[in-house]
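Blackboard transcription, Thursday session:
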Amino acid sequence: MSEGIKRRDFLRAAGVTGAGAGLVGCSTEQVEKLIPYVTAPEEITPGVATWYSTVCGECSSGCGVWVKTREGRAIKLEGNPNHPISGGALCARGQSALQGLYDPDRLTSPMLRGADGYEPIPWEEAESLLLAGVRDAGPSVALVSRKAGPTLARLEDELMAGTGGQRIEYDAASEAPLREAARIVFGSNAIPTFDFLSAGIVFSFGADFLGSWVSPVEHTRGFATASAAEEGGGKSPFVFIGPRLSLTGQNADEWVPVAPGAEALVALAVANVIAREGGDAGSYADLLQAYGPETVSAQVGLPVETIEDLAARFVAEGPGLAVGPGIAAQGANATAANVAVLLLNAVGGAVGQTLRPWDGHLSAAASPAAGLAGVIDSMAGGEIQALILHNVNPAYTLPPGFGFSEALASVPFSVAITDRLDETAVQADLVLPDRHFLESWGDSNPRPGLWALQQPAMQPVPHFDSRAGGDILLGLAAGLGQDPGAADYQEYLRSAWSEIHAGLASEEPFETFWRRALRDGVVELPAEEAAGGELQAPDRAMSFEAPELEGEGLALIVYPSDRFGDGRSANRPWLQELADPVSKIAWHSWIEIHPETAAELGVSSGDVARVTSPNGEVEVPVWTYPGIRRDAAALAMGGGHTSFGRYADGRGANPMTLLPPALEQTSGGLVHLATRVTIEPTGEHRGLASIEGASDQRHRPIAPAVELEALLGGEIHEEEHAELYELQAVGGFVPVEAEEGIPEAYPLEGARYGEYDPQAPRWAMTIDLDKCTGCSACITACQSENNVATVGEDQVRMGRDLAWIRLERFYETVDADIPGPVDIRFLPMLCQHCGNAPCEPVCPVYAAYHTPDGLNAQVYNRCVGTRYCANNCPYKVRVFNWFNFSDVPEPLNWQYNPDVTVRSGGVMEKCSFCVQRIRQAENRATLEGRSVEDGDVVPACQQGCPAEAIVFGNIRDPASRVAQLSASDRTYRVLDVLINTQPAVNYLRKVTLHAVEDIHV
Amino acid sequence: MSSTTLERGAQTHPDIPSYGKVNVDILRILSRPGKIWWLLFGLAVAGVGLLGYSWANQLISGIGLTGLNTPVSWGVYITSFVFWVGIAHSGTLISAILFLFRAKWRQSIYRAAEAMTVFAVMTAGLFPIIHLGRAWHAYWLFPYPNERLLWPNFRSPLVWDVFAVTTYFTVSSLFFLLGLIPDIAAARDQAERGSLRHRVYQLVSFGWRGTDRQWHHFGKAYLYLAALATPLVLSVHSVVSWDFAMSIVPGWHATIFAPYFVAGAIFSGIAMVITLMVPIRKAFGLEAYLTTKHFDAMAKLCLVTGLIVSYAYITEFFMAWYSGEDPERHAFWNRAFGDYWWATWTMLTCNILIPVLLWFKRVRHSIAALFVISIFVNIGMWFERFVIIVTSLSQEYMPFAWGNYRPSTTEMGIMVGSFAWFGMWFLLFVRLLPPVAIAEIKEVLPAPLRPRAGAEAAR
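(Written on the board underneath:)
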């Protein structure tokens, strides 16, 4: 990849050179002064951003990121385009890492539990306590940590090996059954890599691969590209098989709503049909025999034709790719279900084409909960004298039935290395504040041959007296008399990487290699021999039948939140305020049930319901959703924190409290699909903090679609193109030629507003709705770039959220009862920068005005707050600062982008097309003595979009991508036909595989 | 005897025996107020305190203390603004237009109606400032010369509003004060010499002595000001209606808005005059001055404008259907059957159904009935503006952005406070300035001729 770096990219992503110099000088005392640097660090120019490459630590996908720093402060995260996983994009969680870094609830110093609560203690004392505790425990020590980078994992392993204790990996949202299934079916030791880009047809048996499953950013990019209709090309169909339409399910072309847990049988039946028609089932042929479509049809209540049709298409439209069932569907048969799906891939010829078992996703969280369950037993049995918990929160993420908290109380010495007093740390004896990944060293190895360095992008935030987990553990190792071979973790990492370098046997000196790795953020080693992928004989008997669920009522689906994962990113206002991509609800949990189930239960959306399982109960508002089966209810992970921080505590419900302490037999993974729940109204109505008004577009020209056949047959109305070409040519509105006095003649020549400097660019955007998956990463990217404030639950409930992008979601076709087409449309709605903008003439003080380059500008300090512009905006994209929302607790204000005004109360704001980036690109071009080229200006939403659905540029330049995309047959402009606003945002219709209503646009 | 009765019956004020009695009856009102007045005044001052408190709170915390949101970013404040501007209209109509048309029944009511106009504009003028996100920058809407060469946007209907409302306030106050001069002189003459009251009246009566020359000038000035004020009656509320009609919001964007709003303004204004006149008549024993004839005339005006308003409602609904556009049709469907159906049906009941009673002479001649109906019309007209503003905004073009609005306690406090603010000025007015035009009443009384001897003997 390194040869693909452009010169400008090279300048942007400066590598850290040398040990100390890499950490740019920055502390509170300095930055409070106007000119902070008496002796300025070499690479810092005030007012100019410095970029660092590192690795995102939010989930275990291992996305490479670029961190934008200004005057020593990280202010924005962007995907590293050189990194094959992130490919330049980042999800909403990744974008929000900044708020993890500046989280005001991070620990400010080590804490020791005393008689009355925790007391801050100095690091020397904390480390000596840690050393004494672990030394006294001898071999009765255990270290529990989450999936860590390879070098940190090695350090932890070495440390524990030295003490004779044990190290356990624990991840709350873990794909242990999938890894086990891959071992059984392919004999590999990792989760396979799924190549959505190459897939001709995709089946997901419940996996939320666009939202939370394994590597969402990578999957989204591949899926969006493959499933989007190219001009004159095909479109990979996507069938979702499962009880609930997740974000991923909402992107499906077809939905086969099967009961929770029945995915395995369907996968086997489809595989059976393929095998019957000549597919090679290898050593599984006998097993498949028992799952003929007729048998399965009777068991799961699905027509035989549906199964046969799926099978036929998987082969005919292949290469197919089947994934799933994912964490939400991890029942007692989870490994078997994964085996069934992998088997379908194998029989359907996907292995080697779309699924690569040998090129596994090494960094994915796949540790079985059984490991921790074993430690809990030992703890309760008094066999553990000292317990180190590194960045894990089992007190919150494990079902309480495991008895973790009780067992922890019986451990004589427990240490939590974490960044906050979370539910687990608050029970530990000693709490050591860990550093954020943007402040510390580390590495990642997401797949064989792909290595990336995690380097600190800034000096540790001075508010928090923290130490990196690696340094703490290294110090402990040294104290215990072990010889880790390095004084600090950075050195340890370097020596680990020198081994990688040695393995390369290249002539490049190590120092050059190291700097290259830092600068590029990723190193790709020569590919190893592709091996494996042959079907292994099943090594044990497995039950594929849908698991029995305990209790009565609706099957409870517990799924990882697209925003909070397992709950670790819950204390971030950006994510709390981000409307959930599926439910559009912010700040609180909800229980999803089918509208008709709700009617039977006598509840409606916004009613608080008591959800009771045999293991516990929670009270949570109901949200009715046509995309869930009538016999199921769903509750997202990540809510209901009790000790996590001011933005997370007391918000929502934690579904883990409803689950039994059950482990899946084969893999040892936690069983998520285990229980049924009863739902009864409490009589309270709280309403939902939702951004959704109505999810029916009422046949208005808002989000039309086109059937693929019609698109290929050229059946879209032609007349709209003439207008678009005109727009392209002159960059604004031109009246239709007509006699004066008839309506079409207006506005008359000279009376139009969209006529601006003919020499200036006309900035415009295209959004491909066939690519957009509704993941909402653009919203958080925008929030980070543009200092968009968060308003809190009550204000969102009142309809006062400030997001500049509103991701609208319309249900067109959703049927939870029978298999068939599903059509849910997404529409990212942002300021359309109309050529004929209704907001501009009504502002009495010119706060809304048109720039010569066609931007619809908002002058914050001129705005008096009449709000007339918002009333007159047909797109409803103007948001108002009802209060002064920008005052955030220190150091959360460090996140603010110094290039963008922080708005005060009483002023209107809206999308600016990232005008600061436009001006920056123009200035840079001027300095370099050239004109702005296509691609120089990339607004934050486009930059962050994993689906690459957004393209921005100068529509006056016929060669620009935006101009070319605007000329597509699918292009339309929202509402324009109705009100002649001449927007600068051109949408490309969604393409469906079924016939759709023709909405005239 | 019988001829005298007939003669008296033909008069506007058959029960006022002499010019002198007018002075006595009217100037009696400008005396020391009683307990009821003080009670009402106390309530009004308390209400103004509520307004001040609520507004101060809102200035400190932010406009978010309202229930406004996206998409409904105008609510009770703009509703009240339009309501009060509307109220302000009938005063000028009665004093200026009816003056020019020589409608004799205006004499008894025009003074109070004019005072109502002035105070209603003073009330209305508060709301555009109260509703601003940054009220402290309200002066930016005025075209004042500044070193940054920044001017307001003359294309914005809100700037037109600034001109319309300030012009209307200026002209109606001048007209009001001019008309007062002869009456204040009468009050001056009656007041105790050297008292504060006397000195103030002396100042405001501008040395009026009632000479021919003064009457001549006064008459001319009054006529010209009446001519100047007349177009304002029509233009100001037209401009206010353009705040809505110039937008592209379905439910606002309609060519009918200007006449529709003017009719509605007069409708509500006349209703408010009735609401105010009935208690004044009762409290100060002005039955001889405000006869059923006057109320009958006002009721007829109310009926006519009410019918125009009803016609406008029907036209709006018809045009929405006829447009064939879903956003337009839906806006009106939502009005009638959406979340705010109750507001719409309150409006329709109060403004169409209840005024139907005014067709009956018995109703028009029943002061109590008119009082009740006028209050319904006031409520109905407040809701009319609420319905137009809130229901239209709540469900516009983009269904996903639809949302509802509920007024907050701050908004209700300020709305109630605005009535108190208006009431406070009006209470002060009735005790400090002659609420019925003394001089003009005399114009319509029969000239004081010496009684015939026979008649004298008969008595």
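Lecturer's comment: Residues 1-6 of chain B have pLDDT under 50 and may be disordered.
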